[in-house]
Amino acid sequence: MNEKTINKDISCKDDFDPASITPDKALAHIFSAITAVSETESLPIREALGRVLANNIHSDINVPSGRNSAMDGYAINANDLPKTGTKTLSLIGSSFAGIPFSGSLESGQCVRIMTGAIMPEGTDTVIIQEDVEVNGSEILIDGETKARSNVREAGEDLAIGDLVLEKGMKLSPADIGLLASLGIAKVDVTRKLKVAFFSTGDELRSIGEELEDGMIYDSNRYTLYGMLSRLGVEIIDMGVVKDDKELMNQAFLEAKGKVDVLLTSGGVSVGEADFVKETLLNHGEVNFWKVAMKPGRPLTFGKLATTYFFGLPGNPVSVMVTFYQFVQPALKKLMGENTLLPVMVKVPCVSKLRKRPGRVEYQRGILEHDDSGKLVVRKTGAQGSGILRSMADANCFIVLPLDNEGVKPEEMVDVQPFYGVL
Ligand code: AMP
Ligand code: MG
pTM for this one? Predict the structure, then answer.
C-alpha cells in the first residue's frame, strides 16, 4: 500500500497522520542533502581498520607468487602416475617453504615437498605423504592421486592487476590482512568525522550528581557515545544543556561550523518545540518532520553553517531507533562508505505482535535459534519508547511496515540485526 492509498483509507483504527512523511522519504531527503567529505589521510594498514577506503586497490603482484604445494607430500610429474598397479620413483631432494629445490626433475624422479614450498621445475602434482610408501631413497606410489592435485597456482588468490578492494569499503580484519599479503603498508582513507552531541532537559542529571525528586540520569549521551564509537568517528560530548533559550543558543554557536555533525536529544515534544525551533532557525536551514514511525516520530534535520544537524527525540529508545535509521546511514554517506543501510533478514516471528497501520514500527526483538535450530525472532518485553531495557534485552529491530496490522505467531517478519549479531 502506498502513502496515497493510506491517506484515502484513513480511519479511527489508522495512525497515519497526513502531515507526516514516511521513514523512506525522510532518509531520501537526508541522503540528497549530504555530500561525502573529500579530504583523505594516508594511514598504516593496522590503523586503517574500520576506516573507509578512499580509492580502489589493485594488486601489483601475484598471490601466491609462484606455484606451490597445498599439502605435505611428494612433488611428481603427472606422467609418472601409473595407469594400473604401483610405481617406484627415486627421491632426489626436497623443497621447503622458503627453501626451494633448485634443480629440475626428469621422468621417474620425485622431490619431498612441504606445504607452501615452491613446486620444482618438471613437477605438477603432489601426492600426500599418507598415500606414499617410503623405502630409503625410493617411494612407492599408486595411480589414485589425480593429475595436478594439491597444487596452488600462482595468482590463485590474487593475480596482478586484479581489483582487490573497492573505494568506499569499510576495512575489515580480512581486508587489512589482504593488504598485507600484497605488501601494501599504507592506504588512503577518508578523514575521520567530528561528531558532537548534547542532551537537553532541566530534569537531566549526569552520573556523579545527586538525583533529586523528579530528576533522571542522562542516558542518551551514553547510548550515542556507544553507537558513534562503533562508527569510528571523533566524539565530542558537550554535556547537558538546560531548557533555556540563551544556553541552547550558546551550545549551537559552539558547535556550528566546527564539527561535521551535531546531534541533540530531547526538547522536541509539545511545549518545548517552539523555543528550540526558534533558536534553531536562527542558526541555519532546518526541517521539522513528523515521521510516520514508532518510536521516533519527531525528527529534525538540517544544516547549521557547514554542520549537519539532527535533533533526535528525547526518549532513550527513540534516540537509538532514529540514530540507527537515519543518523548512522547519514554518517556512512558522509564518510564515503558505499554500504549505507543496515542488513535486513526475513525470519519467522514466534511472538504475537500488535500494530496499527499508518506507521512503520521498530519493535525490539531477540533473534535466536529455536529448539530445532531454526533462526526465529521473538519480541522483548514492554515496548514503551522510554524503556531502554527493551533495547538492552534486544539484539535486533523487528521492522513492521506502514500498512502492517499486526503479526500472528509464525508469520515472516523483517529483522535488522544489531552490530555483530549475524
Ligand atoms: P523531551 O523530548 O525533551 O520532552 O523528552 C522526552 C522524554 O525523554 C522525557 O521523558 C525526558 O525526560 C526523556 N529524556 C530526554 N532526554 C533524555 C536523556 N538524555 N536521557 C534520558 N532520558 C531523557
Ligand atoms: Mg526535554
Answer: 0.88
